[in-house]
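@channel sequence for tomorrow's demo:
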Amino acid sequence: MRTGEKVLWSGKPVRMPFVLPHSLIMIPFGLVFMAFSISFMMPAFEAPFPFSFFPWLFFLAGFGACFGEPIYLLMAYRNTEYMITDQRVIIQTGAIGLDTRFVEFDKIQETYVDVSFIDKAFGTGTVLVTTAGEYGYVDSHGRAYGLRPSLASLREPYEVQKLLQEAVEKARVTRTR
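structure tokens (generated this afternoon):
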């Protein structure tokens, strides 16, 4: 934290909507893939090594498609924290290491709320921040495929978005004086 910087809001995402995969189509696909590979595992145990190894690769691919994203997000959840100060947005996350992003208010162009199917079921939402010069997109879990920061799976996303928008406007007014 900088000298004189005040925290306006801090929080963590809600666990279940943060951890659940938003691409639910991958779960049945992964289960079918795992079942298909299991049917080939039994005869493959009697085959020479390279042939007995391939069904395991298919099984692991199905397991990864089914459970990989939730396992990654569960690991990232414990490290995920959000903070809005009177000067910037701070987003910290990471499954193994920590990734910390600082978004200065003068870079923020727009804030908005995204409520996915999973978010709607849990009464949560994601506050997305549009910055100058960004590219790519961010999924509902806040993972950046490009540069757009987000505060994912918040209990009261509209209140957080309003607080952030007001803080950005106040910083702009103060800066132009």
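heads up for whoever presents: The two ends are 24 Å apart (CA to CA).
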